[in-house]
């Protein structure tokens, strides 16, 4: 059994010039760059309430994944088998790609409630999970562990979501929980937490603030929603570039800077950009929460 869970020799004969680009595409869908690009687009042009829940869910499961990785310190497959070198020196179990893919796409399918979207989500999740094996970034134990934790996260979040007391709780309760969870993770971390832990905490605080204070509707012409998504995406890329340049120019590093970066990104996504898109007439102002 141990050999089955950790041996990737069976992957090597499957590798080919035509399949490798496909696997690289699927694995890209599980990386931070895509997720931080996809979620704001959905927030601006699809359904801000749904994508707020998705952001919180993804942040929680990403935090749990990073904590468990550093706690278990399970090595990845031999570097000689690896075709994805973006993983750096991080550990293998549980696979973050598998865990986040299950959480993001299955919850989104649950929200959409369409058979075709369930099928699409199943293909994306399977593709992402298999890509991690194909590229030698994880073994079977890693992806099974990540998928299992993703399912567990979905169950817990679903139970919380159906609890009326949680949905109607004041904003400060949600904010306090975010701060408490981030602080608990930080003080119990086995070693130094990765930089995206304070970034995620700051991001959630900023998004929650914007969600509570800047209300808008996407009930506009399709071309307006599309243009809003394009302009928002370009502006978001510009913001990330600007923050990177500021960090380099002023030698800002460390956990505090990452937390501030996350806060600014969250405020941009849920407050500043929606306000601008409403002023431009691409989205419709709304006086109350959707």
TrEMBL record:
Catalyses which reaction(s): di-trans,octa-cis-undecaprenyl diphosphate + H2O = di-trans,octa-cis-undecaprenyl phosphate + phosphate + H(+)
Membrane-spanning parts: 23-43, 50-68, 91-110, 117-137, 143-160, 172-190, 196-214, 226-243, 263-282
Domain Phosphatidic acid phosphatase type 2/haloperoxidase: start-end pairs: 49-160
Highest taxon listed in the record's lineage: Bacteria
Entry's EC annotation: 3.6.1.27
This protein's record includes keyword Cell wall biogenesis/degradation: no
Biological source species: Metapseudomonas boanensis
InterPro entries: PAP2/HPO, PAP2/HPO_sf
Keyword Transmembrane helix part of the UniProt annotation: yes
Keywords: Membrane, Transmembrane, Transmembrane helix
Enzyme type, top EC level: hydrolase
The protein, known as: undecaprenyl-diphosphate phosphatase
């Amino acid at each position: 059994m141990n050999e089955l869970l950790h041996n990737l020799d069976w992957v090597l004969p499957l590798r080919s010039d035509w399949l490798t680009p496909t696997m690289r595409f699927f694995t890209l869908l599980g990386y931070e760059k895509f997720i931080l690009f996809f979620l704001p687009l959905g927030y601006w042009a699809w359904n801000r309430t749904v994508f707020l829940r998705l952001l919180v869910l993804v942040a929680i499961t990403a935090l749990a994944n990073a904590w468990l990785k550093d706690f278990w310190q399970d090595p990845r497959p031999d570097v000689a088998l690896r075709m994805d070198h973006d993983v750096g020196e991080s550990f293998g179990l549980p696979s973050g790609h598998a865990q986040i893919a299950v959480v993001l796409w299955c919850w989104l399918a649950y929200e959409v409630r369409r058979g075709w979207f369930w099928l699409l989500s199943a293909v994306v999740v399977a593709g992402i999970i298999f890509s991690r094996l194909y590229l030698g970034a994880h073994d079977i134990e890693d992806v099974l562990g990540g998928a299992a934790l993703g399912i567990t996260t979905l169950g817990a979040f679903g139970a919380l979501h159906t609890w009326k007391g949680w949905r109607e709780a004041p904003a400060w309760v949600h904010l306090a929980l975010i701060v408490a969870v981030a602080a608990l993770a930080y003080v119990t971390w086995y070693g130094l937490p990765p930089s995206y832990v304070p970034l995620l905490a700051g991001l959630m605080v900023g998004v929650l603030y914007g969600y509570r204070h800047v209300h808008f509707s996407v009930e506009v012409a399709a071309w307006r929603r599309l243009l809003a998504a394009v302009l928002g995406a370009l502006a978001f890329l510009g913001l990330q570039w600007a923050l990177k340049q500021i960090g380099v120019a002023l030698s800002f590093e460390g956990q505090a800077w990452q937390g501030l970066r996350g806060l600014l990104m969250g405020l941009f996504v849920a407050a500043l950009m929606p306000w601008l898109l409403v002023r431009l007439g691409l989205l419709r102002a709304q006086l109350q929460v959707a």
